[in-house]
Amino acid sequence: MGRTLAEKVWDDHVVRRAEGEPDLLYIDLHLLHEVTSPQAFDGLRLNGRQVRRTDLTIATEDHNTPTLDIDKPIADPVSRTQLETLRKNCAEFGVRLHPLGDVEQGVVHVVGPQLGLTQPGTTVVCGDSHTSTHGAFGALAFGIGTSQVEHVLATQTLPLARPKTMAITVGGELPADVTAKDLILAIIAKIGTGGGQGYVIEYRGPAIEKLSMEARMTVCNMSIEAGARAGMIAPDRTTFDYLQGRDHAPSGADWDAAVEYWQTLRTDDDAVFDHEVYIDGAALAPFVTWGTNPAQGAPLSASVPDPASFDDPSERQAAEKALEYMGLHAGQPLREVTVDTVFVGSCTNGRIEDLRAAASIVEGRQVADGVRMLVVPGSVRVALQAVAEGLDKVFTASGAEWRHAGCSMCLGMNPDQLAPGERSASTSNRNFEGRQGKGGRTHLVSPQVAAATAVLGHLASPADLTDSDARTAVEA
Ligand SMILES: CC(C)[C@H](C(=O)O)[C@@H](O)C(=O)O
Ligand code: SF4
Fold it and tell me: Which CATH number do you get for residue 396?
């Protein structure tokens, strides 16, 4: 019987298999950041162990880093300790680190791919749930816990139970105003936050094949929000073109050999998935969340749902609780929800294409009065590219704030936070209670919707902008 993409990559990495035990997998790339690595290094020290493959291990600082005044000492003592600890650990164990201020610094899931470290057919792990991002390259990429981080540091292997496989086929063509973010939000709304539990999801079909690498990363990034172990997309010409010439991509004869292998990384025609889902891409529209988990979303043109409309009692209860926290009421048109803050960034939507998309919408327009818009590139490289294209100027001319690279307002581990009761339209991936700051209210959106929302002050798509929005900006 044929095998799925996930099964092929899995089988290629099994170091040891025994009846009734998890498979022991070889790990090709181990990414580290300041939040989940300290105890792992402590564990090594305690047991007198070394990092087995420093050449396959790389660290960056992202969660606790400020996005302003990065040359000043870190004010918050917790963040400062986190960063100092990572620096000390990397120096002691010989791990390559890209600290704040370094040109390769940035959100771990932006840095790996842009360096060409994330490659098709590899196993990638990181003590971070959004490691699923790397699956966009046809890699098997898992978020792991701190004790597993220690295991990988010490052995470069990891015992893992073989996951089930799910295919999500996206047919048709996405309408022009529908982005990868809308697609993944719609998928999660359909299958639920537990819909992917125990599975590696393979996204496939014509609408997926057409996506750029950036867009594929956006989709795979949020696999974890559907509860999946990982998300994957079969590598193709788009993948190879993105990788060719990057720092760590193979070159010369190695490149040709790599591409030849990568081309075999496709699900066989006769392979059987444990579960299959079909989505009609052509029927999708811009999508936003109204609740406090990523599955609580709806098309922007819809209204806040009535909790009573949910058949499932736990979903009904969750909706009631979410509306209370979000300060929304059933029947309220989503377009009428006003925001205080707009955040463009994160490992979901902080890449160059995302910034280009947002810039093209605010260009010649002004961020609405009373709204603050933060634009935070996912990495320093993304920032440099954006500056080279003049995007930073476009943002600042529109009244947005152009910040230094990092996780920023994706989660409240650094100074970029919502105040209690404040509401944001955010291109990040989680809208949990307090995620962007205690009492903060988050609507997950695409960069395009974020930018249009910043201009109009309420949830909106670029189609809602008129020429007069642009004229106001010129007069102002
Ligand atoms: C801090 C880290 C462990 C966490 C994760 O695992 O995803 C963070 O990146 C997040 O997005 O919530
Ligand atoms: S940008 Fe957000 S989701 Fe991504 S790693 Fe940072 S905190 Fe996690």
Answer: 3.30.499.10
- Report the distance separating Cα 61 and Cα 34, nearest Å: 6
Write down the pLDDT at residue 469.
Answer: 82
Neighbour-count burial for 186-213, b at 16+ CB within 10 Å, e otherwise: bbbbebbbebbeebbbbbbbebbeebeb
Query: How many independent structural domains does the chain possess?
Result: 2
Report pLDDT digits (tens) over 135-185.
999 999 999 999 999 999 999 999 999 999 999 999 999 999 999 999 999
- Counting as low any pLDDT under 50, the low residues of the chain are none
229 CB within 6 A, ligand 1: no
DSSP line for 275-290: EEEEEEGGG---EEE-
- Of 223, 253, 275, the position where a domain reaches its end is 275
Ligand 2 center to 132 CA (angstroms):
12
In a domain, 282, yes or no: no
Residue 410 alpha carbon, nearest atom of ligand 2: 2
Report CA torsion sign: 409, 411, 416, 420: positive
* Structural tokens at position 324: 């209370």
Query: What ipTM was predicted for this assembly?
Result: 0.99
